[in-house]
Structure formats: structure tokens, C-alpha cells
Amino acid sequence: MPETSILSATDIVKDFKTQRALDVCSFGVREGEVVVIIGPSGSGKSTLLRCLNLIEVPDEGMLRLADEDVLSMPRDGLGRKRHSNIVRARTTLTGSTSMVFQKFNLFPHMTVLDNIAAAPHFVGSVPKELARKTAIDLLERVGLADRQSAFPAQLSGGQQQRVAIARALAKKPRIMLYDEPTSALDPELVGDVLGVIRDLAASGMTKVIVTHEMDFAQQVADRVLFMDKGRIIEEGTPEQIFAHPVHERTADFLRRVRVQVPPPISTADTDLRGTHDIN
Amino acid sequence: MSNYLDLMAEAWPALLEGLKITIILTILSLALGLIIGLVMALMRLSRRNLLRAIAHVYVDVVRGTPVLVQLFLVYYGLPQFGIRVTPILAAVLALGANYGAYLAEVFRAGLLSIDRGQWEAAESLGFQGRQLYRKIILPQAIRVSLPGIGNYANSMVKDTSLASVVTVMELLRSGQIIVSATFQSFEIYLTVGAMYLAISLPLAWYTRRLEERSNRGYA
């Protein structure tokens, strides 16, 4: 499978001070494929995603983009060349990927339009007028054409995240990386954002999505990865993972998240149904 | 009152000349201080140990010694090594270097206040190096730094009076010379004080405007 992957990570290990965040993880995504990563908080799913564009630098492992070996750790992380090696690798990866963050991370000093046009213009050398025109088109696609001169702080969370998606798309990435894109949103705003992401799935864009929204995962995923304690425990089609999980840990997690199993004790617990809170 | 007007008729041209020098001193010293401050703040946050150490030592040493000593060192000390400096240049160098140390901390606080997510978003979009700072980080950091900068700008207006001790004919020294000829200390020094106020009040108003402008779009 790695041979046909447009982006792949092999044997990734990442330690945070006292804790192992990723314990030898490997996975790849094929062109046009939508991979959804699920798992409990602290399972390493965000860290794995953030290693794919080197926002997080793995301690060990390899990153490959199409046919190119982008980074091989720890080899490229040794000695004086560490920084330049990592910057070069990150430049390569961010040239083909875009990331949408849990907390939006829009640039607060720029208007919505400038947020979207900035990277294509300053990084990609697209002429300013063209970058703005593209930005307006994208704003239309996410349903916010009328807010182009607003500042991020003047938008709701859901609107901010849609702008962030437009900003990520503006540099024409081959792969979109979504890091819990709806986790910071009020429940009633989640739907709009998921809708935008889903529409883009239909357009054939390659995506890796970390999410706690199980229904959404089931709908959009071509392949689902379940992670726990820094390891990829199980992967398969949504059908396999959600309906016939092989591992007990996967089944256990899904039971806790989806509350499919009727509450066993008292009927008073029924109003817990439908909560997606996993803690 | 007519006494005062007579005195002013005589003293005014010299005071005005002094005011001009004070304004020039303020602008040049502040500009130098801002440049040194920003460079030192960026060095303090550098990846390289050597740059961090240099900035650290600079800030500590300069903040730890009186500005008057620094001024004497530049004006009287440098000529010993064959470096001749004019009084005005000495004042600009000493004041600029001194304020640079304080402004470094103001800028550093501004830079540290920027959320990690801003760096991550910028990097994920391909921003790096100079562009990352110029377009994304510095505009936000400077916004946070503005109140502190305004504070030091105001302070600079008055600290330029220290230049009088190295014979710069700025506002205070012009006043002193008039006093030594007329013995009208009260009238002259009161006028000199009012003239400092005439610079610092508009400056305070202007920095407030700048702050408001930079807060545009912030909740």
C-alpha cells in the first residue's frame, strides 16, 4: 500500500517529555482517499496528523510524499543540519498539504479576505488581484461571501472555521489535513462546518481527518483508523470498523462514544443518549 | 505680566531652537532604541545560544547602569580610542542604546504573547523566516507592545534633557543659559516645562490613536 500512497508516514515515534505520544505508527493515504482517524483523547491521533506536515517533528520514522523521501528520522535530525533539514522537509510537505486546526488559528490582524489571500500571494507569489479573486470564489463556496471584509473576531466559531477551510484550500493543496475541526464549536454550529468538509469530500479531494464526530466519520470515510495509546489498533472501511470491529479496544471505545448499547442500569440515564462526549 | 512678555520676547527664539533640538533628539533616539529593541528581542528568542546570550548580557548590563554614565562613556570615553562624536550623536547613541534594552523587553513580551497556533497556522501555510515574522507575527506582537512603546516614547521626550550635560543645546540647556543671563529662573523653567508638555501631550494622544487603530477587528 505505501507504494501507491500520495503521503505516507512509516514507523513514526514521538515522545513528549515523559510520555510516548506515538509508538511506531505507520499509515498512508492514497490520492482522492478520505482517511478518518478516531480514538480516545490522548491516543495520539492529533499528534500523528501534525507529524504529516511537521508541525510536530517525530523522533523516529519516515515521511514520504508521492515518490519523494521527505524526512527520515533520526538521521535527518542529527547535528548542525537538523534545523535546515526539518525546514526543507516542512517546506516540501506544506507545499502539498493544508491544515485546518481545532482552534481555527485565523490571523486576527487580517480581514477574512486577507486571511485567505495571504499565503497564495506572499508564499505562492500569486498576483494580489488574482489571489483576492480566488479568495472571493472560495468564500462563496463556504457560504461567507458577504463577510469578506470582516475580521475573525467578528465571526462566530463556525464561520471562522469555514474561513479557515477556505484559507487552507486557497493554496491548492493536494491533501487536506483536518485536526478535530469541530471540537471547539458550539453544537449547533458543527453541522455547517461538517457540511463544508463533506462537500469537499465529494469533490475528490484527498483528506486526513481527525474527529470525534462518529456519524460524520462513518459518512465520509473511505478508510477509518482507530488509535489508542499512541498506536494504530485497527483500520478498515467504516463498515468494518463501526459494525464489525475486530479489537476489543475498538469495540469498547465505540460503545462508550456512540451509546448504541442501551444503558443497562436505570431508565433515568436515557437522556445521556446521543452525547458524543467520550470522557 | 508685561515683565514676562518682555522676557519671552527675548528668550523665545532660543527656547524654540532648543525645542527643535529636543524633538530631533527624541525622534532619532527613539528610532535607534526601537531598532535595537526589536533586534535584541528577536535575538533573545533565537534558536542560537550565542545570539540569545549576547542579547541577554546586553539587556542586563545596559539596564543595570545609569544612562548618565553611558552618556559620559560615549561622549568622553570614545575619543580616547580616537572616535570623535558630536554631542548630539553621543546623546542619540547613549539614549538609543539605553532605551533599546528596555524596549527589547517590551517587544519580547509582545512576541511571547502570540499564540502557538498562529505560528503553526502560518507554517502550515508555508510561511517561513522573514515573511513569517513580517506578515504574521510582528504585526500582532507590535500591537501588544504598543502601550509599552508609548510609555517609553513619552519617557524619552523628557530624558533627552540629559543631553544638556554633554553641551547639547536642547530645550533645558537653552533655558539654563537664559536663566544664567536673566536670573528669571521661575518664569523660564516653567516655560521650559510647558514646552516639554507641548511635545508629550500630542505624543500621548498619537500613541492612543495608534493603539485604537491596531485594535481594529479585535474583540
How is the secondary structure organized here?
The complex is a heterodimer of chains A (279) and B (219).
Chain A: E1 5-16, E2 19-30, E3 34-38, H1 45-51, E4 60-65, E5 68-73, H2 82-96, E6 97-100, H3 112-123, H4 128-141, H5 157-170, E7 175-179, H6 187-202, E8 206-210, H7 214-220, E9 223-228, E10 231-236, H8 238-243, H9 248-258
Parallel strand pairs in A: 3-8, 3-9, 6-7, 7-8
Antiparallel strand pairs in A: 1-2, 1-4, 4-5, 9-10
Chain B: H1 2-44, H2 49-63, H3 67-77, H4 87-112, H5 116-124, H6 129-159, H7 171-182, H8 185-214
Helix pairs in contact in B: 1-2, 1-4, 1-6, 1-7, 1-8, 2-4, 3-4, 4-6, 6-8, 7-8
What does this structure look like?
The complex is a heterodimer of chains A (279) and B (219). Chain A has a 6-stranded mixed sheet with strand order 6-7-8-3-9-10, sandwiched between helices. A 4-stranded antiparallel sheet of chain A has the order 2-1-4-5, with helices on one face. Helix content of chain A is 37%, strand content 24%. The two termini of chain A are 34 Å apart. Chain A has helices spanning 45-51, 82-96, 112-123, 128-141, 157-170, 187-202, 214-220, 238-243, 248-258, and strands at residues 5-16, 19-30, 34-38, 60-65, 68-73, 97-100, 175-179, 206-210, 223-228, 231-236. Chain A contains 9 helices and 10 strands. With 279 residues, chain A is of the alpha/beta class. Chain A is globular, with a radius of gyration of 19 Å. In chain A, helix 3 crosses helix 4 (128-141) and helix 5 (157-170) runs parallel beside helix 6. Chain B has a single domain, classed as MetI-like (MetI-like fold), CATH 1.10.3720.10. Helix content of chain B is 81%, strand content 0%. Chain B has 8 helices and no strands. The mean pLDDT of chain B is 94. By secondary structure, chain B is an all-alpha fold. Chains A and B meet through helix 2, strand 6 and helix 3 of A and helix 5 and helix 6 of B.
